[in-house]
Write a structure and sequence with these properties.
By secondary structure, the chain is α+β, with helices and mostly antiparallel strands. The protein has 1 helix and 6 strands, in the order αββββββ. It has a domain of about 60 residues. About 15% of the residues lie in helices and about 25% in strands. It has a 6-stranded antiparallel sheet, with no helix packed on it. β2 and β3 form a beta hairpin. The protein is elongated.
Length: about 100
């Protein structure tokens, strides 16, 4: 419901939304980034999913055979499609080079 000043009344959801935003900002200070900035070249990364308390390893798998690398999904722990919220590089992992691909 919109208020006269244009803001949206958050009701009982306000405090949890504020807590989620504070956690997001704190994770960003620890090196986590939004998924839209994650590598799409198959490089393994660490991810966090909302609703999970774990840190998982995932990588982008392209469905367009790597030609455009825009159609695909992140697969976590090697076996299931994932909807991660944040990512960070795995320490001591280098980005994959094109010559490494079949």
């Amino acid at each position: 419901m919109n208020r006269p000043d244009g803001s949206i009344h958050r009701g009982k959801s306000g405090a949890p939304i504020d807590a989620l935003f504070a956690a997001f900002n704190q994770l960003r200070t620890l090196g986590w980034r939004e998924m839209m900035y994650a590598p799409r070249d198959g490089t393994p990364v660490q991810i966090i999913e909302l609703g999970s308390t774990g840190i998982h390893e995932a990588c982008w798998m392209s469905f367009d055979h790597g030609s455009l690398n825009i159609c695909g999904s992140f697969f976590a722990d090697g076996d299931y499609p994932s909807r991660p919220a944040l990512w960070r590089p795995i320490p001591n992992t280098k980005p994959r080079q094109l010559e490494e691909f079949p």
